[in-house]
Amino acid sequence: MSDRPTQYLSPEATNALQRASTATITTQLLKRGFRNTFLAGLTATRPDMRMLGYAFTLRYVPMREDLDLVDIDNTTSAQRLAVEAVGPGDVLVIDARNDTGAATLGNILAERILMRGAAGIVTDGAMRDTSALREIGLATYIRATHQTQSTARHHPADLNVPIGCAGVLVMPGDVVVGDADGVVIIPQAVAEEVALAAQEQELREEFVLEKIRAGSSILGVYPPNAATIAEFEG
Amino acid sequence: MSDRPTQYLSPEATNALQRASTATITTQLLKRGFRNTFLAGLTATRPDMRMLGYAFTLRYVPMREDLDLVDIDNTTSAQRLAVEAVGPGDVLVIDARNDTGAATLGNILAERILMRGAAGIVTDGAMRDTSALREIGLATYIRATHQTQSTARHHPADLNVPIGCAGVLVMPGDVVVGDADGVVIIPQAVAEEVALAAQEQELREEFVLEKIRAGSSILGVYPPNAATIAEFEG
Amino acid sequence: MSDRPTQYLSPEATNALQRASTATITTQLLKRGFRNTFLAGLTATRPDMRMLGYAFTLRYVPMREDLDLVDIDNTTSAQRLAVEAVGPGDVLVIDARNDTGAATLGNILAERILMRGAAGIVTDGAMRDTSALREIGLATYIRATHQTQSTARHHPADLNVPIGCAGVLVMPGDVVVGDADGVVIIPQAVAEEVALAAQEQELREEFVLEKIRAGSSILGVYPPNAATIAEFEG
Amino acid sequence: MSDRPTQYLSPEATNALQRASTATITTQLLKRGFRNTFLAGLTATRPDMRMLGYAFTLRYVPMREDLDLVDIDNTTSAQRLAVEAVGPGDVLVIDARNDTGAATLGNILAERILMRGAAGIVTDGAMRDTSALREIGLATYIRATHQTQSTARHHPADLNVPIGCAGVLVMPGDVVVGDADGVVIIPQAVAEEVALAAQEQELREEFVLEKIRAGSSILGVYPPNAATIAEFEG
Amino acid sequence: MSDRPTQYLSPEATNALQRASTATITTQLLKRGFRNTFLAGLTATRPDMRMLGYAFTLRYVPMREDLDLVDIDNTTSAQRLAVEAVGPGDVLVIDARNDTGAATLGNILAERILMRGAAGIVTDGAMRDTSALREIGLATYIRATHQTQSTARHHPADLNVPIGCAGVLVMPGDVVVGDADGVVIIPQAVAEEVALAAQEQELREEFVLEKIRAGSSILGVYPPNAATIAEFEG
Amino acid sequence: MSDRPTQYLSPEATNALQRASTATITTQLLKRGFRNTFLAGLTATRPDMRMLGYAFTLRYVPMREDLDLVDIDNTTSAQRLAVEAVGPGDVLVIDARNDTGAATLGNILAERILMRGAAGIVTDGAMRDTSALREIGLATYIRATHQTQSTARHHPADLNVPIGCAGVLVMPGDVVVGDADGVVIIPQAVAEEVALAAQEQELREEFVLEKIRAGSSILGVYPPNAATIAEFEG
Lengths: 234, 234, 234, 234, 234, 234
What we know:
The structure is a homohexamer. Chain A is α/β, with parallel strands linked by helices. Chain A contains eight helices and twelve strands. Chain A has helices at about 10-15, 20-30, 65-70, 80-85, 105-115, 130-135, 190-215, 225-234; strands at about 45, 50-60, 90-95, 120-125, 125, 140, 145, 155-160, 165, 170, 175-180, 180-185. The radius of gyration of chain A is 20 Å and the shape is elongated. The interface of A and B includes residues 21 and 37 of A.
């Protein structure tokens, strides 16, 4: 786990990603050829919070009765090891194969993750105790609520390997950004430039939006022609 | 586009449809043999608003890289032509093949549609910036949120042709009614009579509901027997 | 219908189930070998209310035009007989084959069910008038909203037979518990013991949660080792 | 079970249904207002055989561990009672909730059903031992193959009640016709007339098909105009 | 319809596409940036035949009772106009919204299409009479079999407009190639070069395959290194 | 990879598993508490062949443009490393997340796997060139055919880790058995005893089947009572 890249964003990029919408970020990624970066179908339990961190991945496979209908051992379970390993700046991203037939975590583990300073939790499966989860101050993104504990469906297999989450590749250390509309994954190699370009794009779009609100047509404005660009840059 | 029928509802019918629930309207349509008129699976971004207008349809087909990964031309893109063509009393209804793998519109275009006076937007795909969309005063119905821009998945093909939206046929000029529970499409030929019959039905149901709330059984009341009908009409 | 078991829970167990979360109850059921007891994919229309009662089942089959596009007879329709038969302590549980293509009940019948004192309604299909339904004080769980009346899709077949609801077996008289996170079915034979064990579990988990909130690791605490158990029991 | 209607078709209608395609039968049902009579998504294990009989229904609900992970009792299991009750002219139609996560029958029971003289088996779930099943001379229609025995997923609930099978209402005693393309359910009340009308339709279509094969356009021929009808009837 | 491009392939390219596998063609398209060209989920009714032609598109929308439960008029129905308009070298490609709840064509119309010399039929919905269809010598690709006639579900809307078929954009005049494994759409602008490049690729792969069959490792062979390329070209 | 367990089955167990049906094996696994061992939804490309071997697992995650739209390097790609590592007695089992939107392997790699002596291939995704694949003598199980190469959808992540395949846990070294009806996974720890018990069960079932074919009822025979058991054992 020690070689998972974190903290590589500059303060300026970090600041930019604390404000940019996930929509803007997907656009900057699309410009760079990355078409599949948004985690479709997830819901924010705390749409009032933003999330920014580095991916700490946890991979689940289907449960098997001899492995999972037994007492949980905190010293060997990949799930439990993950809970006690995440730290400040980390987002725990769980590959649950989009299977919502049982939970992937409950609120006791979520509270521990919060106490450890993690930036959030993302799962493409279900969580239990979602109503309790909403009460604690941890950005969390889930596909569904299921009250049955994870061992009824899932076996935690390993940590910090490349995973698929909601159909998107997540590498350990990728930048994970969440807002009220969902979660986007930014590959490490382009995170810095995407952050700065997103900030720039949002300034331009705010300018465009003001013109639209003032009654302008989209012609020459969105996308902007040379005159509009000059006006913006002036 | 000029021959799309609009404004054919009488003031009385318009008034009736500004109040009738979409449930009542589907019942009146069912009585006339129309079984499939409710757009299943869509969510109101503004459940506090009602929507009433005439369908302005926009049809998307799957994107293709040589057509859609290029600069958008407002003078040829069917999407952009639609945005600058809708007007007061129109509801923009988008056929996105129920595909939620990218957005169908974003908030800048939605704001322009609002500025043009349109009555609302309905898509059987996704929208981006849904949280921003909730802030503006435009009734909008979506299947999902996806932050990736529409060109990653959709190619706008044409305007004001018959479309399927959420599994329902929508003809240009059909009446579109939305409330907190969803959207119903009323074929033009029956819109006037359905509107008036819906108003009548709601009066009867309010009468029934008061009896139920007063402790009445449904027997003889729902559906009403002759005595109940006489009491209502008396 | 008269032989449907009800009221067999002791006051202590009833009290316990009025407080236990559905998550805790599924855990106690899992300990007893019942893996599939949570009704996945349903939403509470009133997440502020809890629900506790005995299952009164209603089974729908697909509609057929000669049976269902006719006037409803309250004296023969299984749906209507159910509405006038449920009473205090009953939860009406509807098997709609997870089909959300039309409603399974509307708000007039829901109000009558409320007036009869029932504890709630659960359907694995849709309801109409969901926004109106939210206004009345009846715990209700639905898969979706569809405004078209039930006869467009469903034929009510019989009452108080074993059904599947959201993929879970429901026997008439089974205990049904709902909270903001969903609904769990407790087989009659284990309901008393599950209730008491759930109460006990929640006390233990509250103790654990306080330790976690105070900064404890999960090691030795969740699951608890002998020392933690002794501390709890002390 | 004794009051399940069977053998009510005339010899002429029986003969007609032994030849008519399921496509023709759905058309005659559609003409009479029945839109939903074909069991979509099922595959014939013996496309070389036709099937004709009266529906003997068997209803499954989700399994529960205390009921189904025990020894099977042939004197109480609805599945086993059905196997020993079907007879000549019966088609066993199983409502498995379209759930293909385990089998609904295996080849030993299928062989017993064959020995009892039944006309076929239809399930909207899976069967096991499909390759063995193909070897025996019994028309069988399945959604999928799953090798796990039925008790892993299904609990047999009751016999000869109205069921849904592949989304279609099946009443005990309805006529069930199968050919290489699938299965259609004919409601008892219209079975006689549908049979005769189907026979008539096929004669007309054979006439039309010969004209098409001889190079005719469809104009005036399909559908036929007065001249074509006169030629056919002449 | 008259401006639909056809017959633009050279004899050499036509010849190449009569032999190249659809797998090879998708690879050549992918090299040119087209990622989504294969019609997933369709089955060949005649896997022994190949298909090559120019797309003649037919678009269906959801049926509506006042439009579709009436006598079919061959002079206005888009479906019937299409059947009498396709000719030699055309492939009729139907956009049925991937909806398999009724047929999109039956065998009488298919025989007429065959008589008119068309090269094949592709639908992303169902066909009826599939077993009869297999008997006639027309390459046909379907998603499923449904015996109910198309008007129960579909309304034919228009001809030779851009459509989506099985999730892929099909422009009128695009090249359509089918083999036992399925159907690929080649955009007109690249059809000539893709055809020739596919032919070249298959020669190379046959060379590679022979080495593999002779016991070679894939190292240096697949993909080929300079030595292998030289050996092939030598 | 070197520590993947193989060849641990006794000759007697190997022999038993070369004959036992996958149905029988799931029953023996169910008796031991393993409910989820059959890979649902896969099709045998060679239903005339049986397959028996030890699982060699290959895990795919979603593709990303910077990783997968580049030349394949046989020395680093997990897919290519797998192809050159499998050997006699191995079954290559691919976790493709049940995603059939592109192939997971094509026929050149399949031929190399055959040449290396592997016992078969199992994927929960698609394969390309399925019709060519049917020609070679390698047992292969697939969910679908898709002609687009794997890099359009999949990134090969690692080898011989626990995976989910078609919803079932597969550990490296688990025994994999396939017949015409599908594939079952036998956990290593119980493989020997399951093999021998399956053989025993099939002898009993053959005895039962003969009685059924001779006209016996299932009563006392299936399941067998003491008399039938005595007769079998006699």
